[in-house]
């Protein structure tokens, strides 16, 4: 549908565009930079953006990737596709009180496609897609910046013209190589920001496409406005920030399409200027388009709110301490300080960290804190830019500064704590879109300096140096995101007061078996944050394994005292109490854990072990059965059921349970071994032998497997094979209990047989 505007008294949109092209100065005139054909410019940007992050292609799953991808059931084929629309980014139900309410179903869908195409959790495919997305976005930036810096004008054939090819190339390069983008590109979870940015830009370009000229003059297409709204909705389904493009499209329409001078408009409104009547017809189209944008945005937000179901997510004080401050003054001061730090990351992206919470940035509590200077500097710059954007007589300057500030501020609003509490202090990923505004302002500032500079080449070399430094910083930072060890250790120098950094370094060391070093970092995490229950829980676990049970109990007791619904800590406390032979307290701790987490198979498993120690066999079997109901692949629970039934002489029941377990977990060699033992005792030698051999094939270095197979052959009368497997077992484990005695018995028997034969 095409809406044509014809009014003899009003300035037509076509005339407005023509006048803009003729009267506005060309930004490129003062910019000393490379001039490349459009195709080559895009190739250069694509290549450089690829070089910045290429070394992250074979990185691991790191940090939040574990929860969003590896532990997210929504990626697996058995989860219905429809569930993605009712689950959050992490795979939890949106209606749950524990949900983070981050609704990004389209991003999760791309993860699922990655998983299915790769046939499992292989990170290369995930990383490659992220790199391709960033390269694509960087190339699109040339078109976006050509409009934002050079204006919107079409040729007689309806093709959009790039009036600022040098400036748009520089701005796109600045965006492509900005180190703050590393988290989005090298961290797989950052795909939400990349996909959001892609559809964000497509929405903007689609909106611009609504204003192509034709033979009858300049028109706007309702269809393309609606397409822009739909693309904005898709951007929001990738990440929440995407909705802000609708506001930016409205700002662009007012400033570029209608060339509204905000200060002049306010003055005329105050004086009820008659000129407003003449401009009324022109602005009817603007009001109609903004109404479409607002209606679309309101509809999207309403649907999002309905799907979310409950209120906002419940974050803790450690996630965002400023938002929990009692004083409005303290909250306001610290929010503004966070804004200044975000601005500094754009200006000087040298100190980068995967997490800025948990004491990384201590709260400002009084005006005597020297960090107040950062707030003053931020607002001094912002107020100066806003005054220039509103009051400058140069319409070209007003337009670029306003668009730059708009793209800097509006996409950042969802992360600003102004409308709702967010779950972080600073997050580098949320600066991906606002960096567009930074690139506009930097490029415009460079053009002004070039205009004044006598030696423009020196200035161009300086900017080239900045780009080169940023490329090297991207390469270095990408390499740090390749593994959790490098990522976490890189944060120690940036945020030494961040308890979560020390916790993650400790966890990484513990996962690699270096418990002594892990203890050091866990203790430091607890020292920095005495209420860090997860660090207490993990430290308590390691101390429990090292048999330092009393200190482990103290830590775990403190953890559940601080957070009474911490189910994992209750379970671990029960394990420690069981080891200390305080069985009643252990049982109570297990049941408290289950009370706070109804579906807790591991806790039922440990409860079953407690009952087995107390010879409460029926209770033990029931607990293990509950564990297997909740988690059918719980091998340890199945094994313990088989062994308990075997030891109590219930061979038929043990066999039935073993067969049931193997149907569910057919490749579990420990289950094959347990069932083979039962079948051997039931004199089902052939079937027992087959299972033993299958278990040995899966795990050839298990001494007990060879030893028990030898016992089976011994009973069966196959003495040569028995001797062979006894010897293999003793070679693998010379101290294997009972094996040496059985082997000696067999040797004596063989000697006796040889004497008889002789």
Automatic annotation (TrEMBL):
EC nos: 2.4.1.109
**InterPro entries membership:** O-mannosyl-transferase_TMTC, TMTC_DUF1736, TPR-like_helical_dom_sf, TPR_rpt
Catalytic EC class: transferase
Q: Which UniProt keywords apply?
A: Endoplasmic reticulum, Membrane, Repeat, TPR repeat, Transferase, Transmembrane, Transmembrane helix
Q: Which domain of life is it from?
A: Eukaryota
Q: Where is the DUF1736 domain?
A: 311-383
How is the protein disposed in the membrane?
Multi-pass membrane protein
Coiled-coil portions? none
Gene3D superfamilies noted in UniProt: Tetratricopeptide repeat domain
UniProt-annotated location(s): Endoplasmic reticulum; Membrane
GO biological-process terms attached to the record: endoplasmic reticulum unfolded protein response
- So where does this one cross the membrane? 39-57, 131-151, 188-208, 220-237, 243-266, 286-305, 372-391, 403-424, 430-449, 458-476
* GO MF terms held by the record: dolichyl-phosphate-mannose-protein mannosyltransferase activity
Alphabetical GO CC annotations of the entry are: endoplasmic reticulum; membrane
What is the predominant subcellular site recorded for this chain? endoplasmic reticulum
Q: Is Membrane included in the keywords of this UniProt record?
A: yes
Spans of the TPR repeats? Answer: 499-532, 533-566, 601-634, 703-736
Q: In which pathway does it act?
A: Protein modification; protein glycosylation
Q: Which family does it belong to?
A: Belongs to the TMTC family.
- Name used for this protein in its record: dolichyl-phosphate-mannose--protein mannosyltransferase
Underlying gene: Tmtc4
């Amino acid at each position: 549908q095409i809406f044509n505007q014809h009014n003899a008294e009003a300035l037509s949109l076509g005339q407005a565009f023509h006048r803009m092209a003729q009267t506005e100065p060309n930004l490129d005139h003062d910019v000393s930079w490379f001039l490349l054909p459009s195709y080559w410019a895009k190739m250069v940007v694509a290549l450089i953006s690829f070089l910045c992050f290429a070394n992250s292609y074979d990185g691991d799953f790191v940090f939040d990737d574990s929860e969003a991808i590896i532990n997210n059931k929504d990626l697996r084929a058995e989860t219905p596709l429809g569930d993605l629309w009712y689950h959050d980014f992490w795979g939890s139900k949106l209606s749950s009180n524990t949900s983070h309410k981050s609704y990004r179903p389209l991003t999760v869908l791309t993860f699922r496609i990655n998983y299915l195409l790769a046939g499992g959790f292989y990170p290369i495919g995930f990383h490659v897609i992220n790199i391709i997305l960033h390269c694509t976005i960087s190339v699109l930036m040339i078109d976006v910046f050509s409009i934002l810096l050079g204006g919107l004008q079409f040729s007689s054939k309806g093709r959009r013209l790039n009036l600022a090819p040098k400036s748009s190339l520089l701005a796109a390069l600045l965006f492509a190589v900005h180190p703050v983008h590393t988290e989005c590109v090298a961290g797989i979870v950052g795909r939400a920001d990349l996909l959001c940015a892609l559809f964000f830009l497509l929405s903007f370009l689609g909106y611009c496409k609504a204003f192509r000229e034709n033979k009858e003059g300049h028109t706007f297409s309702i269809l393309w406005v609606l397409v822009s709204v739909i693309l904005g909705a898709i951007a929001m389904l990738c990440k929440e920030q995407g909705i802000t493009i609708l506001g930016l499209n409205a700002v662009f329409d007012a400033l570029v399409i209608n060339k509204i001078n905000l200060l002049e408009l306010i003055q005329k409104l105050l004086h009820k200027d008659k000129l407003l009547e003449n401009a009324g017809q022109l602005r009817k189209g603007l009001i109609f388009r903004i109404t479409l944008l607002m209606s679309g945005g309101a509809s999207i937000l309403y649907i999002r709110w309905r799907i979310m179901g409950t209120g906002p997510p419940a974050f803790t004080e450690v996630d965002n301490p400023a938002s929990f401050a009692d004083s409005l003054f303290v909250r306001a001061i610290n929010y503004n300080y966070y804004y200044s730090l975000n601005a500094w990351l754009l200006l000087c992206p040298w100190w980068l960290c995967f997490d800025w919470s948990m004491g990384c940035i201590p709260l400002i509590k009084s005006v005597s804190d020297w960090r107040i200077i950062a707030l003053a500097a931020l607002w001094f710059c912002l107020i100066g830019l806003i005054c220039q954007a509103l009051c400058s007589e140069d319409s070209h300057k007003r337009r670029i500064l306003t668009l730059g500030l708009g793209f800097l501020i509006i996409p950042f609003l969802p992360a600003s704590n102004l409308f709702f509490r967010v779950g972080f202090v600073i997050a580098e990923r949320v600066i991906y879109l606002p960096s567009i505004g930074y690139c506009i302002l930097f490029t415009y500032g460079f053009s002004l300096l070039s205009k004044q500079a006598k030696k423009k080449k020196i200035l161009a070399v300086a900017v080239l140096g900045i780009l080169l430094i940023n490329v090297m910083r991207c390469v270095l930072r990408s390499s740090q995101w390749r593994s959790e060890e490098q990522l976490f250790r890189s944060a120690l120098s940036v945020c030494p007061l961040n308890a979560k950094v020390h916790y993650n370094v400790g966890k990484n060391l513990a996962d690699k078996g270096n418990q002594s070093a892990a203890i050091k970092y866990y203790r430091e995490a607890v020292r920095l944050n005495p209420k860090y229950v997860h660090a207490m829980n993990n430290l308590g676990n390691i101390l429990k394994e090292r048999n330092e049970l009393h200190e482990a109990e103290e830590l775990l007791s403190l953890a559940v005292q601080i957070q009474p619904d911490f189910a994992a800590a209750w379970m671990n406390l029960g394990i420690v109490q069981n080891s200390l032979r305080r069985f009643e307290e252990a049982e109570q701790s297990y049941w408290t854990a289950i009370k706070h987490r109804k579906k807790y198979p591991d806790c039922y498993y440990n409860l079953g072990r407690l009952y087995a120690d107390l010879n409460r066999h029926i209770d033990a079997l029931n607990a293990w059965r509950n564990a297997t109901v909740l988690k059918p692949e719980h091998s340890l629970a199945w094994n313990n059921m088989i062994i308990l039934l075997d030891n109590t002489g219930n061979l038929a029941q043990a066999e039935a349970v073993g067969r049931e377990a193997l149907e569910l977990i057919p490749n579990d060699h420990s289950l094959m071994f347990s069932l083979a033992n039962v079948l051997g005792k039931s004199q089902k030698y052939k079937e027992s032998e087959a299972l033993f051999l299958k278990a040995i094939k899966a795990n050839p270095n298990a001494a007990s497997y060879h030893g028990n197979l030898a016992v089976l052959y011994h009973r069966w009368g196959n003495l040569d094979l028995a001797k062979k497997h006894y010897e293999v077992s003793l070679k693998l484990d010379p101290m294997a209990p009972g094996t040496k005695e059985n082997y000696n018995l067999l040797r004596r028997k063989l000697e006796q047989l040889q004497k008889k034969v002789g």
